[in-house]
């Protein structure tokens, strides 16, 4: 079968690989009818999340049809249409029973202290082969799969595999109260769903921060106030929009590939921190900080890993809440803790508890409360996955979220 395989930093290939088979009685094998490209996948190719194992199939978003079932998977039938939770979970350990499915004690082959296991990630997460393929093995299938209700399309379901629940998780852990003013840093797919989730939870005002006009336009269509940090100082703009107070909640939906401003008033501040930012990039991307694996303008690491965090902390009101859902690797050791501590901030962060959230969001989609396909901008065949990655990586206008069709 065809699958997108990680070979090295800056080196991904659409390869012929063996079809997956049942390995454990808790496994299922699905034929994928939809997959997608996520910004997290770019971290692995840019080298800002290290520890990838050559030969790992990429991708952690999927919708498909069950073709094989292990003996211990008793809540599904062959032929069921399912959405794959991006993070694996057993469903019966203490963290899973409390709803913290991303911290399952059993899913990660590296042991209960290893943390989150997800598809298509580095060695520390399994590794478990991913979903940008024609078929996939699903460990702990009884909890890692969720049936797709009648009336929910593949295009809708693929967006509930990871990015919508992650945006929801970011708003949920921030404990947004009705009337709160929320700033969302990063208006990629997860940021767009963080905006939508904050509004669904009753936020009075959402301020979206990003440097790309197409992403900001999508945020405005949702009703967000927008700030382009290449044109104005984002902290000053947020303070102006909040009467000088700052926001109640800030959500970092960017992560380690954050960028500083290259134009406008915020660029002057970035120039003063150039060496600091360079050291941060070297810390998280030791084999690509000097663009050793950059090819034709692709796979460039973010040039200021802590920039979104710094802006978020500065933009918060005193005793506000910082929610971090952008991906940061264990190698990221730099954090503006003093700035946060001296504002009495509450900080919440982590990987999304997909299984605890996805059923609720599928029902919201089924009832018509929200249509997640408003964020979907491209649908491409798996055969064109490399060029789709290159366009998404360069943030070409209009390339916000791409669905992949494995059967084409």
TrEMBL record:
* Keyword Mitochondrion carried by entry: no
Tell me which residues make up the Enoyl reductase (ER) domain: 10-325
Where is the region Disordered?
Answer: 260-282
Keywords on record: Metal-binding, Oxidoreductase, Transferase, Zinc
Gene3D superfamilies the record matches: Medium-chain alcohol dehydrogenases, catalytic domain, NAD(P)-binding Rossmann-like Domain
Does the keyword section mention Cytoplasm?
A: no
Q: Which GO terms describe its molecular function?
A: oxidoreductase activity, acting on the CH-OH group of donors, NAD or NADP as acceptor; transferase activity; zinc ion binding
- Which regions are flagged for Basic and acidic residues bias? 272-282
Q: Which InterPro entries match?
A: ADH-like_C, ADH-like_N, ADH_Zn_CS, ER, GroES-like_sf, NAD(P)-bd_dom_sf
Q: Which cofactor does it need?
A: Zn(2+)
A Pfam family that this protein carries is ADH_zinc_N
Q: Which family does it belong to?
A: Belongs to the zinc-containing alcohol dehydrogenase family.
Protein name as it appears in the record: Alanine acetyltransferase
Which species is listed as the source?
A: Trabulsiella odontotermitis
